[in-house]
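Supplementary Data S3. Sequence and structure tokens for construct A.
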Amino acid sequence: MNQKFTRTLGMLALAAGLTTMASSCTKDLDQVPEYSANAEVVYRDPVQIKQVLARLYATFAVSGQKGPAGAGDISGIDEGFSNYLRTYWQLQEITTDEAILGWNDGNLPSVNTLQWNADNEFVRANYDRIFYEIALCNEFIRQTTDAKLSERGISGNDASTVRTYRAEARLLRALCYWHAIDLFGGGPFATEAASIGTTPPYKTRAELFAFVESELKDLDTTEGLLAPRGEYARADKAVAWTLLTKLYLNAQVYTGTNRATDAITYANKVLAAGYTLAPNYTFLFLADNDKTAARNEIIFPIAFDGLSTQGYGGMTFLVHAPVGRAIAPASIGINGGWSGLRTKPALTRLFPGGATGTTDKRQTVFFTKGQNPNVDTLGAFSSGVLVTKYKNVTSTGKGGKDSNEQGGSGDFPDTDFPMFRLADVQLMYAEAVLRGGAGGSQAQALALVNAVRARSGATPFTTIALADILDERARELFWEGHRRTDLIRFGKFTTGYNWAFKGGVKEGRDVEATRVLFPIPNTDRVVNPNLPQNPGY
């Protein structure tokens, strides 16, 4: 792989001005990207600084420096396959009982079956995306210190605004390091303070946990981040609180210490921040979810626009890949389906009546016509229930900006991906209470879970246990990128609970305990001798 990042600072979410190829190797985690526009010029202008910040956000959504493809940010894999959201979603979902992706591209089947190794290109792509974004955030943070702003004549309100941008970059970096903790355990580590040109040291899972915890708590207590709900799709204090809740809820897995009380502390902050559940569950996943009542439930989205964030990962993948056979593409607001994604019986069985029940409105996205409800064949799109959760149509039935209905290509959706939302926080609060955390109550936990269920017409619980929370999280949050983490936290990912083709057999089987972590890619260990390999690989 190429050993050097090359960046051109560009324009807004699409980064239309980004035209230079960038490599993926994280050996360069602490190096300064090269700019065709001089950094001293760019970082003297608050307007251009905001454009660089926009690219930090866009890196989760787009795959390269011009849309929809042609100048990918990382190499070694098809650009669309390598998109951050797409690769993260696949590692979190098709490794579980919630989804299957039947294509035979490269080593993708081994991700479906939990049989990957340290040379798997789909695992490597997400690893590279994580550390690539960290490197970009490091450079932004490095260039926006108070000293740098003063040197460049930025003061007053402009300096205050850039400090907010800098805090957001730190939060985005913390989010990426959390992804590294959750997926890979430890990994290479660098901040803006690292010496340029050195090889990053390895930090253990516990060490990365401590760094992310410290960063998020500092961002919570110091000036910088916007207040909750200040501006849609910005990383504000509620995003930091939600991430802390997730970090602490999984602390038993990450560090061996129960931090349920801390999870409740930060969940309470989110619950008091004024977010409300959207009255209609399906509106959360439509092309105008940034404009309807869904907006007030979504704490942090990855924002997409059919005209200005074009690519073949992200929501393009999540909208197109489940469509085919009897699903009419026009009903989804697209020009055609990719016939890849389905779900497994383990998920549909969690609902009353399976995939065809009517007592829970969340089931309305299950499409059964002409489908074998079982997953009898990994590669057959007819094998498994289809899911139409994400659509490129609005709450009024109108196609998105790039739909054929609007005169567009029908390729690229407007639908935002709800990475964090209120219902998730309510369920985390309840789980933390049931895990013995202080600062909450059983009565409030039950009320919050039942509020989530009531929206979809599900029968209220009279009591709740931890097993109920795991199942409710599947019903509420399926296909939103949480399931692998949830199953690991509940001790059900590798052994004692199986699903179709887990371990490579039709009925499913237990797999090695080491599968709770992905391997550090061999491509990075070759160039960074500081990196050990995770056990079992």
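Construct B, processed identically:
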Amino acid sequence: MKLKVVILSLSVFAYTGFTAQNIQNNPGSNHGNRFEQLGTILPTPNIYRTASGAPGHGYWQNRADYNITAYLDEDKKNLKGSETVTYYNNSPDDLDYIWLQLDENEHSSIRNSGYDTSSVLHPSTTDQQLKVTELPVKDNGYGVSLEKVTDVSGTPLKYTVNKTMMRIDLPKVLKKGEKFVFKVDWNYNIPNRIRMGGRGGYENFPEDGNDLYTMAQWYPRMCVYSDFQGWQNHQFTGRGEFALVFGDFKVSMNVPSDHIVGGTGECKNYDQVLTSDQLSRYRKAENASEPIEIVTLDEAKKAEKNHSKQRKTWVFEAKDVRDFAWTSSRKFVWDGMRVTIPENNNKVMAMSFYPKESYGLYRKFSTKAVAHTIKTYSEFTIPYPYPVAQSVEAANGMEYPMICFNFGRTEKDGTYSEGTKNGMIGVIIHEVGHNFFPMIINSDERQWAWMDEGLNTFTEYLTEEKWDNKFPSKRGPAWTIVDYMKLPKDQLEPIMSNSENIVQYGPNAYSKPATGLNILRETIMGRELFDKAFKTYAKRWAFKHPEPADLFRTMEDASGEDLDWFWRGWFYGTDPVDIAIDKVTAAVPNLETDPKAAAEIKYQVEKPLVNSFEDLSKIRNREDKNIKFYVEGDKDLQDFYYRYDRGQEKLDNNKQYTIKTEAGLPLDTRDKEKFKNITGYQIDFVNKGGLVMPIILEFTFEDGSKLYDKSAAQIWRLNEQKVSKTYYFDKKLKSIQLDPMRETADIDTTNNFWSSTGTGTETSKFQLFKQKQEGGSVRGGSTGKVNPMQAAGKS
């Protein structure tokens, strides 16, 4: 009869299960409810939003279509506009009024949001800040000047402006299924965004006397009316971004005739605004696999010298977008190429607009980065649905449907640093990626910055990795968030905080949620489960208005993983990860049945293991034969494969630990020879940080070989403060490294290492014994499997 023993040669064995005695030794006082369900923390499911995270059968959202004309006065730095808005009430509610956003009031000294911040005296200041305080505050001349607000027949409508918001009182109740058409005429003085800040405005180039305009938040825009909030009419302070409704746009921009214009959607009259040579190049670029200059560098330099007084009107149209932005300048070089999205065979024009100051970088990289981004995001979310994707160099970073503004200028001699190049590529990927979050998966940025910035930063990281396996990503890998998580508790805030109230905005809205998703993908769920669930969320909520609960529930619904503990800890809490190896206890077999009590090996860190660290994602990506990097990297490292074990056994120093045969038969000489080199190790861990995570171990043996093991985070479910893991190896263990690839964001790695040479402690022995089994039958004797509880002498 085949003996079935506990030890497996050159593999890891861990006991599973938790006995009544363990429960008695680990009372309920150790619980912080980290594994309890979120329950009432999440909104109650209803006919609009289901418990699965999908839109319900009663889901609805309102819509707004725009027809806009704009006149850019370059001399006066003024924009004059007129819009006709058709607003559709698809909600079950009767509406007495509607709300619009007047975002340009951000720049007004008297009509801004009024959200003051604390200020102190500084030893140095700028000339712009050094102004005599005048009370009461005088009007600085910026902000929206409303000229006319009427219904479609021209009858004036009653309206009220409250800082950056405008309420229009409807002449009659707008019922479900009805639409309301109204008109607004307005103008505003365009701010110098380099001096005054903000997303929209102009930048002046004093060397050639020209301007570059980024026209954003430039028209009165409808607020969102939703099932979960009603009107989203929180004031615009300049930080919290936008909640917007989908619709169709037709926009005509009248600009100086020597300007080049790029905008959301497709231009409908290139044949009227481009020269014959430029139009010919555009047609060629439509089928090119490499970027072609549509407006050349020489043409841009020539245009800079003559400021035309003639005018041209550019006409753009866009369908199913939540916003419209545009850019205009005579300084622009313009290039483009065609990129095909395999998932839907969508042929997209990828294009870039940039001044000569950016030529050395943008000509080489920008349009290619645009193409790479929409292709990669399409793999991880939904196929890119729009006809164009554009990058504009404007010394800043901001995103809108099908167009975004980025930085990336060379030195005057055309040279640039690696830091500038990588920063430019990273920001292009990030801002183009915003086409997916939130331009398509249309979350409420005014309330939840992380739902667009965090999800987008995570997907940006995946895209950077596929651009270049060695790309120096600053956000996404777990180790990059450690410095933030180390901060004192009074300097940390939950991710689930309103955009306006976050102090550490970058780490909290961008880095921490991106890192959390990466930990889910690489360490907790695995790539296959995560990618399916993430794509499900994107598909479910494309062209809709998702909320956090919709993401949380979908990720669990599509994967079969209970992640409430992770959302609770990572998104709602501020605890860091700090798991420590507390002590290691070793025991060796005494074949003469003369056991000694197990001795304790006290843990100390004298010589912490120093690894040549490389991020786990990079290694896995190199091993994935399906991944083709935009910039080829090395492919010489192997992936790690982990077993998932659960449970805990408490080591009692006064107890004898035994190994027996399944049949209870006596051990013969051959058996003793097999068991004589076995050493048992109990590793005790403590949760010092508070946030639970999987326990990932790298074992190094005296012969130089290594083994890896991972226990899911649920190992902490019965004791959130202390757990133990027991292993039996048939060769001597030299060291143990906890979280060797730094994939859990552990803030203190000095307590993650144990070495057998670090102490002079003595190992003890455990007894191998025989037991005669009455009845003579052996259950499952031919299976070759081990019952770990039986092997441990447990019932």
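The two ends are 23 Å apart (CA to CA). The first helix runs from residue 20 to 25.
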